[in-house]
C-alpha cells in the first residue's frame, strides 16, 4: 500500500497509533521464555561509557537489526547504520541490517531460541503483539535510552526531544518504556483546499458550518464525506478526538481504562449523533459501506467527496490520484466544534507515534540497538527520513529548512495549533479485537450504514467493552 502511516497503517487492513490495528497473535513467539538461561547469557560486554558513548556501547561488537520492509522501506535505517559505523568503526563488517515483511514468522524461531536481534522494527501484517511481548517480559526497558543525552544537544535527554505522547505510547501501565515509536502520524479530517475553493468555502470550524457545506456540496453532486465501510475502524481517527473535544480528554481515558459506562458519557452520544446526521441527511458518498480503504481514498481524491477520516500516510497512499489535480492542495482539519460548551478548544487533534521499535530482552547487544535508535533521533537522521518517505518523525521539530509536501506541511501546522491539546487514545494498541472487530465493524460501521441508531451502537459498544474488561484472559492496562 505504500503509505507513510504511523503504526504502519499502510497495512491497517491486515493488522490492527494512532496509527498504527491487526496484530498477529504472537503466542508462538512467546510460548517458551526464550531459550532458558540467565539474561546475561551470550550478552556482549559493555564498552566504556563516555560523552561520545553515553550508552557504553561495545565498540567492536556486532549489531543485528531487523526492519519491516513496508512503505517506508529500509534505506533510512541503513543511512543511520552508516552513522553508527562512523561512531564505531571497529564494528565495520559486523553490523547486519536485514528487512522483511514477515516479522513474526522470521523472528519466532529466534525469540524461542533465545537469540533475537538487537533491534526490531516490529511492524506490518505480521507484527508481534505488544501486549503479549510485555506480559511475557520479552522486551528491554528503553528508559536508559530515553535518559541518555541526545545527539544534537548533550544537555537535553532523548526523552525531552520527543513529541508529546511518544514516551507514554511505549508504556503499559508502568514507568518502563518498552517501545519507541519512530514515525509520527497526524489523524483527522483530510480534505482538498482546492476542492473547497470550488465551493467558495474553507474548512468548517463548527459542526453547523460542516453541515451547511455538506448541503452545498450535495447540490453540486458532491458528497460531504466518505470512509472505508469495509474497515470502519478508520472512523475513530476523527471521531475519537471529536469526542475528546466535546467532553474532554478524560472521556477517552475512561474509555481506554474500560471503566463502567464510559461509552455512555454524553460526549459520546453527542459525537455519534453528529456523525449519524451525516448519514441521515445523505451527506455520505453512496456505496461507502461497501468500500475498502483504497477505494474510499480514490473516490475522495477524485473529488467525489470532500472529507475522509484518515492519517497522514494518505498523502503517499493517494499520491497518484492527487497528482492528477494540481490544485488539490491536501490538508488535514481538526474536529469541528460542536458547540460553545465543548471542553477542549478548536484545534484539538489526535496525533501519535508509529513505526514501533523494540530491543528484545535477550538481545546480545542491547546497548548497540539503543544507540542506533539514538542516532535515528538526531536531526540529521530525522530529516533524512522525512525527505525519503514524506512522514514526520517522533523528534519534536526537526523540519527546519525542509520543503514539506502540502499534506505534511498542513499536519505540522495542525500540531502547532493544537499545542498541548493533542489526544492519544490507547484502545487500538491495548485491545486489538475490541477496537477493530467489535467497535469498528460491529458498531460504528453498522451505525454509519444506517443499520444501528447511535443509542443502539453505544449500547452494543458498552457491552463489548464490559465483556473485554471481564475477560480474565485479556491483560488490562490503565492510563
TrEMBL record:
Keywords: Signal, Transport. Its main location: other. It is found in: Cell envelope. GO terms for cellular component: cell envelope. Pfam families: SBP_bac_1. InterPro entries: Bact_solute-bd_prot1, Chitin_NgcE, SBP, TAT_signal. Residues 1-34 form the signal peptide. Belongs to the bacterial solute-binding protein 1 family. This is Carbohydrate ABC transporter, N-acetylglucosamine/diacetylchitobiose-binding protein. The lineage of its organism: Bacteria, Bacillati, Actinomycetota, Actinomycetes, Kitasatosporales.
Amino acid at each position: 500500500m505504500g503509505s507513510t502511516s504511523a503504526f504502519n497503517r499502510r497495512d491497517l487492513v491486515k493488522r490492527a497509533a494512532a496509527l498504527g490495528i491487526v496484530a498477529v497473535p504472537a503466542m508462538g513467539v512467546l510460548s517458551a521464555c526464550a531459550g532458558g538461561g540467565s539474561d546475561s547469557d551470550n550478552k556482549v560486554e559493555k564498552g566504556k561509557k563516555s560523552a561520545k558513548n553515553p550508552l557504553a556501547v561495545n565498540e567492536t561488537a556486532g549489531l543485528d537489526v531487523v526492519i519491516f520492509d513496508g512503505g517506508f522501506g529500509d534505506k533510512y535505517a541503513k543511512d543511520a547504520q552508516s552513522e553508527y559505523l562512523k561512531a564505531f568503526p571497529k564494528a565495520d563488517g559486523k553490523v547486519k541490517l536485514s528487512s522483511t515483511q514477515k516479522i513474526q514468522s522470521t523472528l519466532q524461531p529466534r525469540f524461542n531460541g533465545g537469540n533475537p536481534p538487537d533491534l526490531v522494527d516490529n511492524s506490518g501484517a505480521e507484527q508481534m503483539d505488544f501486549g503479549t511481548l510485555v506480559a511475557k517480559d520479552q522486551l528491554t526497558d528503553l528508559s536508559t535510552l530515553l535518559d541518555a543525552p541526545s545527539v544534537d544537544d548533550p544537555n537535553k535527554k532523548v526523552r525531552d526531544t520527543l513529541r508529546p505522547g511518544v514516551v507514554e505510547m511505549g508504556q503499559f501501565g508502568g514507568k518502563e518504556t518498552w517501545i519507541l515509536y519512530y514515525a509520527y502520524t497526524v489523524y483527522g479530517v483530510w480534505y482538498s483546499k482546492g476542492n473547497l475553493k470550488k465551493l467558495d468555502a474553507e474548512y468548517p470550524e463548527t459542526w453547523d458550518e460542516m453541515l451547511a457545506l455538506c448541503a452545498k456540496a450535495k447540490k453540486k453532486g458532491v458528497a460531504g464525506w466518505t470512509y472505508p465501510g469495509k474497515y470502519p475502524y478508520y472512523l475513530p481517527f476523527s471521531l475519537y478526538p471529536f469526542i475528546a473535544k466535546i467532553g474532554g480528554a478524560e472521556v477517552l481515558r475512561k474509555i481506554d481504562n474500560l471503566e463502567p459506562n464510559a461509552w455512555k458519557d454524553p460526549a459520546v452520544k453527542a459525537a455519534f449523533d453528529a456523525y449519524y446526521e451525516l448519514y441521515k441527511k445523505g451527506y455520505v458518498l453512496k456505496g461507502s459501506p461497501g468500500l475498502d480503504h483504497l477505494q474510499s481514498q480514490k473516490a475522495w481524491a477524485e473529488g467525489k467527496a470532500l472529507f475522509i477520516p484518515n492519517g497522514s500516510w494518505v498523502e503517499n497512499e493517494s499520491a497518484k490520484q492527487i497528482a492528477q489535480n494540481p490544485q488539490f492542495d491536501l490538508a488535514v482539519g481538526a474536529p469541528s466544534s460542536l458547540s460553545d460548551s465543548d471542553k477542549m478548544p478548536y484545534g484539538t487533534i489526535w496525533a501519535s507515534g508509529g513505526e514501533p521499535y523494540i530491543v528484545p530482552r535477550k538481545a546480545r547487544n542491547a546497548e548497540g540497538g539503543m544507540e542506533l535508535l539514538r542516532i535515528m533521533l538526531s536531526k540529521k537522521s530525522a530529516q533524512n527520513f522525512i525527505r525519503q518517505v514524506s512522514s514526520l518523525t517522533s523528534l519534536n521539530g526537526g523540519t527546519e529548512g525542509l520543503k514539506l509536501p502540502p499534506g505534511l506541511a498542513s499536519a505540522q501546522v495542525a500540531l502547532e495549533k493544537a499545542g498541548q491539546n493533542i489526544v492519544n487514545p490507547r484502545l487500538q494498541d491495548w485491545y486489538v479485537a475490541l477496537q477493530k472487530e467489535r467497535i469498528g465493524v460491529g458498531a460504528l460501521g453498522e451505525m454509519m450504514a444506517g443499520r444501528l441508531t447511535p443509542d443502539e451502537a453505544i449500547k452494543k459498544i458498552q457491552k463489548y467493552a464490559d465483556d473485554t474488561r471481564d475477560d480474565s484472559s485479556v491483560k488490562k492496562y490503565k492510563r
